[in-house]
Amino acid sequence: MPQLWILNLNSVPALQAPRIKTAFMGGFLMLSPPVGQWDHLWITWSGSRGWWCIIVIKWDRVGKENNMFIGEYTHTMDEKRRVSLPSLFREELDDTVVLTRGLDRCIFLFPEAAWENIVAELAGLSFGDADARSLNRFLLSRARKVTIDKSGRILVPDLLAEFANLDKEVVFTGVNSRIELWEVDQWKHYSDEVESQADLLAQTLGDIGMI
How many Cβ atoms sit within 10 Å of the Cβ of residue 28? Predict the structure, then answer.
């Protein structure tokens, strides 16, 4: 989420309106190029109040936007529970990801920026709703931030590996904005079950206009 500061330009005598007017761009007045990678410094005129103001927007972090993960890949997890991410997934990720319990006994892996959006959505749910409380606890209580090492591997926390019954062979599946980690036999069983219901799923998707 961005942090926003608004300063009264009249309190900064070194900045003169004629200089500012020459930098007019698209309805805003840019005082200078962005400061660093994440800061944007703008100047605009408040006609109703009769003063120039500085608007500084500082982003806490910049992540890769609009991630879309697709495909299925089987990798081997070593004795220390380290496993290499599929290269196509790795290209879409920053150095830190979030792992948490997923549905159907898999592990959800989120890019950090996507995880922050989910946490914000969870925070908006009513504490008075029992299902909302349960969902918050399920997703947040065992969530862990994990760093991707220089070899493109992640270390799966023991408690999550045990939850998903991960042993040696791990299946990575791309599911739009998230990645799932499955124990290979559980994934095969789940995948076979879904395929056996393909006609029913197609009918349901057709009924809601998806296909």
Answer: 14
